[in-house]
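Here's what a typical entry looks like (Glutamine--fructose-6-phosphate aminotransferase [isomerizing]):
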Amino acid sequence: MCGIVGILGKADVASRLVEGLARLEYRGYDSAGIAVADGGRVELRRAVGKLDNLRVAVDAHAPRGRVGIGHTRWATYGAATEANAHPHRFGAVTLVHNGIIENHAALRDEVEARGARLTSQTDSEIIAAQLEYLLRRARTLDEAFIALLDKLVGSYALAVVFEGYPDLMFVARNGSPLAIGYGEMEADGSAEMFVGSDALALAPFTGQVSYLEDGDWAVIRPDRVQVFDRAGRGVTRDVVSITGVLPAADKGPWPHFMRKEIEEQPESLARLLGALVDPAAGSLKPILPGIDFASADRIVLIACGTAHYACLLASYWIEEIARLPVEVDIASEYRYRNRPLTGREIVIAVSQSGETADTLSALKALAGRVAARVAVVNVATSSIAREADAILDILAGPEIGVASTKAYSGQAMGLLAIALKAARDRGMLSDDRLGEILADLVSVPRIVAETLCGSDDIERLARRLSPARDMFFLGRGVNHPMALEAALKMKEISYIHAEAYPAGELKHGPIALIDTGTPVVVFENVDDLNEKTASNVAEVAARGADVVRIGPSGACDLVTPAAGPVGSLFANAVVAQLLSYFVALEKGTDVDQPRNLAKSVTVE
């Protein structure tokens, strides 16, 4: 949620700030703004709505200056208005803030009791007012900034500029990600410096970044960066290269990022397969070095949203193949449960961005309490990846569309590989059985590509379903998580009320919702559960439902390519993604940035 970009440049920075914010649009936002410092003066430009509105405000009267900060806001405290948009200025302090300040009410009372007149409803302006007050009582900027951080309770990523202090920026992070980018050094020892919420925002400007840790704060000047930890000790954070790691985040010939990312799945899954499987040897490549499942007594999978459904799918594989008990928890619930631990659990945290706040907090809370903590992520330098004991990078490349597509399929494939490793570690998987599963797994990029070739049929089906106000998705076994994921996709981008159930659960209540013409989408199994599913389909059809069966058999309404049990699940995922996409197009919604949603949920 929200995005920060900052530049200490050699020339005017306004246009580049907007360019950096454009790279952060995928995170979700409802207003945006920039602040540019020119000597002793700071000018603000802010706008509600899409970034194009900010561009109009900047182009109409471009602020001049070599130092600036920018922000895309996703509303928390206060509605989406220009007054609540960032940056916020109070006196000599101008700042942008990601996160949530939990003690904002008490801090607001403090500043208002001193006579401060706040112009927004945000917790962020309160930070600026507090810092302005502390500046007038401190001997140095450092002293005032430290005193500010001591007062804040909650999550924050901050970038601050001060009137009267050219070529200077203060930054800090606690619970919200923040990276520093290093430009090329000039002959005089100076360089352009950059700040961003993630590497994607910094990629147009530099290939060298360092990631602040929780509790870090830093003073950035053109000739040096000083980083301090929570205790005020000077620390060094490694500078890593992102050159060549981040492909261009543009739509190419596709009308939406979501469609582009759906179409990229044969390539992204083949890339991941290359890291997981040695097809010539018919074996799994070494993954998760140092993690041994032999002595584990259970696996705990924690995630949110789409990643949670990938975990539910993986639970079937892990229990069946590795014969290990599995618990699947929503991270926002798990972190607050006081549950007993044996110390022999292996915890797997799954997150596309690697910055999901609830998942990160749960992972941190388990440090030293379980046998191992594994991260399945799409950003190997993310906070969750750095916190974990081992990582599996799904190698999907940047995913910009809010509705996860190629990341979901990559998470599913990565988790299946972990299930296979766990089974081998525990001696539960014969060579023959491993060969069968790997042959099925290796077919996935081809199956996905063939499914994509049937997009015209899926589009026709979408036109048939798009008038619906309610929709139901059914599945049994491994197709129950698939139904949940399909319903989520439909809700996210088409705004149709969609629910998912195990097919056998209908008669226990939900069938009361079935009426004449209600769409019921059924994912058929490539196993012996199909006969039971067929009886459930008959029950809803008898009540007038518009039943749509999806699967590889010729009797289905939408026939997917012939595939094994693994390949068929990935085919179903593509159908679910395209179906929601085409329904959203029919309804005219914002596919890539659906209302009220953010790509990376970095606050509770």
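The mean pLDDT is 91.

More examples are in the samples folder.
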